[in-house]
Amino acid sequence: MFSAKDASGRRARVKLGARRLRNSAVAKGRLLNCRARFPCYWIEGGEENEQIPGPRPVSATLHVEETAFGKWFLKTETWRVHVLERAMADLVRLIPERQASYGVVVDVGCGSGYSLPKLAQRFAPRELVGVDIDPQMLALAGAEARAAGVGVRLAEASSSRMPLPDGYADLLFCHQTFHHLVEQEEALAEFLRVLKPGGLLLFAESTRRYIHSWIIRALFRHPMEVQRTAPEYLQMLRSAGFVVPEASISYPYLWWSRGDLGILERWFGVQPPKEREETLLNLVAVKPA
Length: 289
What we know:
The chain has 289 residues and is of the alpha/beta class. The protein has a single domain, classed as Vaccinia Virus protein VP39 (Rossmann fold, 3-Layer(aba) Sandwich). The protein has helices spanning 4-8, 68-73, 77-94, 115-123, 135-148, 184-194, 208-211, 214-219, 230-240, 263-268, and strands spanning 12-15, 28-31, 40-44, 104-108, 127-132, 151-156, 169-175, 195-206, 249-250, 280-286. Strands 3-6-5-4-7-8-10-9 form an eight-stranded mixed sheet. A two-stranded antiparallel ribbon has the order 1-2. Helix 4 (115-123) links the parallel strand 4 and strand 5 (127-132). It is globular. 40% of the residues are buried. It comes from Ramlibacter agri. InterPro entries: Methyltransf_11 (IPR013216), Methyltransf_Superfamily (IPR050508), SAM-dependent_MTases_sf (IPR029063), UbiE/COQ5_MeTrFase_CS (IPR023576). This is Class I SAM-dependent methyltransferase. Pfam families: Methyltransf_11 (PF08241). One of its GO terms (molecular function) is S-adenosylmethionine-dependent methyltransferase activity.
């Protein structure tokens, strides 16, 4: 479907990533310039395959680049275990009538790719796609997938402009990505376009309460004007056309999402308030059939 020969008439071996990443220490991949100057990649456990066409040009204002600390944090055990794995386990639990496998799974905002092997393991897709706007993160994602022996297509693109056909994906995974996006409504419209009828959106997000906290403001960088409460995220998803069953919604109150980092509860036994403004939202939304 995505033929490099049709796009350029030839294939060129290059380092994984755009020209500015040519010296990065990652395994060799393949690059296809099939739309303007925008790259796309294909990594599959050492095998060669076709690539996804590169995305349309996007404005830099669509993405707020993370701080150096934020990029470092994505490599830590805290992120892998307490953030990513906890969210993924919760989302899997929320899936209505879960299937043994999902044909095409897309990780929107795949970052450094730690989620890719986990998605392959949990959903057994015949095709796994990772999308991210940051080419440095894509280079890391490619290396992560190759090390795990997982086949994945990687596309440098905005979440609101993905180079995928209509009705292509069975499942979209969007974990801790939305609070980085400026064009949130446009991204949801794109998710609906890319999903098949009846397809699932696994959505895990930090709310305004958490993103506006002092520690996050000090260490990370986000577009603060677009942050939303949990009810506002739910309303936006439903207004976009998604069906969000109440049984597929979760509000975890994990220690790292609290202003005191859970110290009061862990050290002094102070229980969190039952009535509070939620800091995290996990849900499974469905595109109507």
